[in-house]
Amino acid sequence: MIAVTGVLPHIELQFFILLLLIFSSYMAHSKKIKVHCSLMGTALILQLITIVFVMLPTFSALSEMQISGQLLLGLWVHHIAGILVVLLVIYIDLAVKGSVHFLGEPYKLMRPVALLWFLALSGGIHIYLSL
């Protein structure tokens, strides 16, 4: 079992990242694109830090535990969604900056990525609370 005291700061950080995403979305709708990009960059960096220092060690510990098939499926869905989010955010950023060629409009991916990020966050919170 994972100690709740170790989980709560991580969940609080995830809610902070969610607030960054919401405010960033508001900035994009307000046509303050530079602020939006800065907030998204901050959210991505914070997310990568939590992946490396919290999620990977937790997943490694869970791989040694006997857990239900339903929870294991939830873990994999959460991880795959999270990996897709990180890769897509990096890809969108590179496409908007002109560093990579993008077939179509990179801005059309932003809403689906935001939804995917929210679903991954919700799934992660559910996983932690289930443990």
Overall structural class, as computed from helix and strand content, comes to mainly alpha
Strand segment count: 0
Beta percentage is under 5%
Question: SSE string, helix = H, strand = E?
Answer: HHHH
Distinct helical segment count? 4
Radius of gyration: 16 Å
Q: Largest sheet, if any?
A: none
Based on CA inertia axes, which overall geometry fits?
elongated
Mean of all residue-level pLDDT scores? 83
In whole angstroms, the N-to-C terminal distance is 6 Å
State the share of residues found in helices, binned by percent.
over 70%
Low-confidence stretches: none
Key structural traits:
131 residues, mainly alpha, 4 helices, 82% helix
Describe the structure.
This protein has 131 residues and is mainly α. It is built from 4 helices and no strands. α1 packs antiparallel against α2 (33-63), α2 (33-63) packs antiparallel against α3 (69-97) and α3 packs antiparallel against α4. The longest helix is centred in the middle third of the chain and has 31 residues, at 33-63. The chain is elongated and about 45 Å long.
Compact overview of the structure:
Helix content is 82%, strand content 0%. The protein is mainly α and 131 residues long.
SSE blueprint:
Elements (H helix, E strand, L loop, with lengths): L3 H26 L3 H31 L5 H29 L12 H21 L1
Helix pairs in contact: 1-2, 1-4, 2-3, 3-4
